[in-house]
């Protein structure tokens, strides 16, 4: 589904993403870990087209999408839930999703309504469909990020720390939700600091440090790796 | 239901106005409606689309000249030439957009103004458009003199109400959602698949087409057009004043702004210098105390009243 090879990005002298390659197949969830500044969010910026790459290629179903602007990538099927939610203050929750389904996937009529309702139901925003972006609390803003990405009909779903600020119980619900999303037509990439959540939902985990790939393997192998323990689990993060 | 009935009564009253108004009143009413239409068109681009254009007077002039040239060279009735004038300005806008849209923010504004200047200079130097002396309405013979004032009024009414209905319908459509999303946060809008250039191009072409039609209607009853009148910067001053005073990005804004503008103009007509002072002072005052313009103030008043009514 998604093939990334030798992706590079520098800001001035600082290399933020340094030759990252990976492949995510349909039905798979790739967890992305790494300490702050490892280049995780920049990697997503490159995949989503928010920032141009300095080198390397991104292929979606074999098609090279490396040079496409973000709106075309969404239409091609790469959707993203931002770490810092970006709701439109004057649009209602439902309008956000109608927009995502129509602009992102070109849906109309009953197919559009169905997609919107499904995204509302999956993310538990059904009773807040009439609220505007401005009125939402942080948790609902995070849910809306995920709902927007789902409503655009993704083939590749980029989730950037969507569990931040959630209670333990809510994190479990989120893990169940992400597991429920897995299907042969969807590849998921999930950046998360909460290791046990990532472990529970991911088929493989990619560990980044200073823009480079440290290890990419099944969750048990990654969390047992001494380099990972030193870099990440040893630090004052939720282990 | 009640606002709907009120609206229908108002529209019927406006349609029947020529049967109860004298020539002078009808002329003034047509003028007001042209300003409403122009402001609605500008509001669509600036208020909803977020593109501030100080060059719309160029498209007023192009619309007016399109009417005069089309009815001179082609066998079209002047009334039919009005939608055609809209098409001419739309095509011109469509061709200019790739250049103008390379410019952002304040540079777009400068680009629009330069475009309007170029239109004026070309029309003034070109024999085909009559040069600096202007053109008479060659098809004036085919107009019924007795119904001339009323017809011009009805055309102005059609363009004003048509522009308003179009903005109303657009803002309730998927296209309106895209426009609002882009105005709120461009990156977030692009991240769910909204293509900014296509949306802005559509809104720009619609805005200049409406402007061209309103321009054509405005110059129809004059029976003569000159570059000085057609490309007058005062069009722009009036449009911006009316839209901002009325409430930018609000559909009732152009109506409220036009009402205040014409009240000021008619009461202060004795002195052109005091009239400009009053216009400027009103603009500053409204911007300071009512950021949403008259429409915003009216909204707040109505919502306060309705919350008072619902309280026991």
Q: Which key phrases capture this entry?
A:
heterodimer, A: alpha/beta, 4-stranded antiparallel β-sheet, 9 helices, B: 312 residues, mainly alpha, 2 domains, 14 helices, 1% strand, globular, Amino acid/amide ABC transporter membrane protein 2, HAAT family (chain B), membrane (chain B), branched-chain amino acid transmembrane transporter activity (chain B), transmembrane helix (chain B), cell membrane (chain B)
In short:
The complex is a heterodimer of chains A (239) and B (312). With 239 residues, chain A is of the alpha/beta class. Chain A has 9 helices and 10 strands.
Task: Describe the structure in your own words.
Chain A: This is Amino acid/amide ABC transporter ATP-binding protein 1, HAAT family. Chain A: It comes from Lutimaribacter pacificus. Chain A: Keywords: ATP-binding, Nucleotide-binding, Transport. Chain A: GO terms for molecular function: ATP binding; ATP hydrolysis activity; L-isoleucine transmembrane transporter activity; L-phenylalanine transmembrane transporter activity; L-valine transmembrane transporter activity. Chain A: InterPro entries: AAA+_ATPase, ABC_AA/LPS_Transport, ABC_transporter-like_ATP-bd, P-loop_NTPase. The complex is a heterodimer of chains A (239) and B (312). In chain A, the strands form 2 sheets. A 6-stranded mixed beta sheet of chain A has the order 6-7-8-3-9-10, sandwiched between helices. Chain A has a 4-stranded antiparallel beta sheet with strand order 2-1-4-5, covered by helices on one side. The model of chain A has no long low-confidence stretch (mean pLDDT 88). The longest helix of chain A is centred in the middle third of the chain and has 15 residues, at 109-123. Chain A has helices at 40-48, 70-76, 93-105, 109-123, 138-151, 168-181, 195-201, 219-224, 226-233, and strands at residues 2-11, 14-24, 29-33, 55-60, 63-64, 78-81, 156-160, 187-191, 204-209, 212-217. Chain A folds into 2 domains: 1-77 and 154-239, 3-Layer(aba) Sandwich (Rossmann fold); 86-153, no CATH class. Chain A is α/β, with parallel strands linked by helices and 239 residues long. Chain A has 9 helices and 10 strands. Chain B is an all-alpha fold and 312 residues long. Chain B folds into 2 domains: 23-229, no CATH class; 232-312. Chain B contains 14 helices and 2 strands, in the order αααααβααααβααααα. Chain B has a two-stranded antiparallel sheet with strand order 1-2. In chain B, α2 packs parallel to α6 (148-171), α3 crosses α4 and α11 (233-246) crosses α12 (253-267). Chain B is globular and about 55 Å long. The two termini of chain B are 24 Å apart. The model of chain B has no long low-confidence stretch (mean pLDDT 89). The A-B interface holds A 48, 50, 69-72, 74-75, 79-80, 82, 86-91, 95-96, 98-100, 102-105, 133, 148-149, 151-152 and B 174, 177-178, 180-181, 184-185, 187-196.
